[in-house]
């Protein structure tokens, strides 16, 4: 009996992943709000009623795609920020990680970039929640670095949000550059991203000297 349950569970998981993969492929050219349930199930080759064994609605499927898209990036970037190398090295490695992630998961990145301000509320909230957790993790890593000594927690969080926003923007720009195919386009995005992050890093080193970390209004 337990073997039969295991087989059924494995098949259920396989079908669930097939629905996610099919939806992701279909979303390359359209938004989630315009994608129909029947379109997804037809692509997988299952009856529309089978969809509801895995997801309540298309919004719940979209939330699962958000978790797929952003979950692994959290771990990679957090690990880099936790290292104690210099700021230049961390910036270079972080941008390289984002570039690699875009190359390996272009459909996920396009989905997040499109739906971050899209028409499905649950998905917008899921993306905002993932990015909020991302910022919390980055803030914890930044707080542990010596340069953050004396910083207020809300200022460290603000800094983390700046980094996260730049990384998300860079990922979307890299995706467009890769799709455009123009020679040197991706390299230009990488150069700009590194300069932007270095500018943030320079501002970080002078923040307390300007009195901003102690509660003054910019």
From TrEMBL:
The keyword Chaperone does not apply. It comes from the Bacteria. GO terms for molecular function: DNA binding. It holds the Pfam family TetR_N. Residues 13-73 form the HTH tetR-type domain. Residues 36-55 bind DNA. PROSITE patterns: HTH_TETR_2. Keywords: DNA-binding. This is Putative TetR family transcriptional regulator. It comes from Streptomyces lydicamycinicus.
């Amino acid at each position: 009996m337990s073997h039969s349950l295991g087989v059924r569970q494995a098949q259920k998981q396989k079908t669930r992943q097939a629905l996610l993969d099919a939806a992701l492929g279909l979303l390359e050219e359209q938004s989630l709000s315009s994608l129909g349930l029947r379109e997804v199930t037809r692509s997988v080759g299952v009856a529309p009623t089978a969809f509801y064994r895995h997801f309540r609605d298309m919004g719940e499927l979209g939330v699962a795609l958000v978790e797929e898209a952003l979950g692994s990036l959290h771990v990679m970037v957090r690990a880099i920020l936790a290292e104690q190398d210099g700021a230049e090295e961390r910036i270079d490695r972080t941008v390289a990680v984002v570039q690699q992630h875009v190359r390996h998961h272009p459909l996920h990145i396009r989905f997040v970039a499109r739906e971050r301000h899209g028409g499905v509320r649950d998905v917008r909230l899921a993306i905002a929640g993932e990015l909020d957790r991302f910022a919390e993790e980055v803030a914890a890593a930044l707080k542990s670095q010596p340069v953050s000594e004396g910083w207020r927690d809300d200022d460290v969080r603000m800094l983390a949000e700046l980094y996260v926003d730049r990384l998300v923007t860079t990922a979307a720009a890299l995706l467009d550059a890769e799709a455009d195919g123009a020679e040197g386009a991706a390299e230009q995005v990488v150069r700009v991203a590194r300069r932007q992050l270095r500018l943030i890093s320079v501002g970080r080193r002078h923040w307390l000297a300007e009195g901003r970390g102690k509660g003054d209004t910019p």
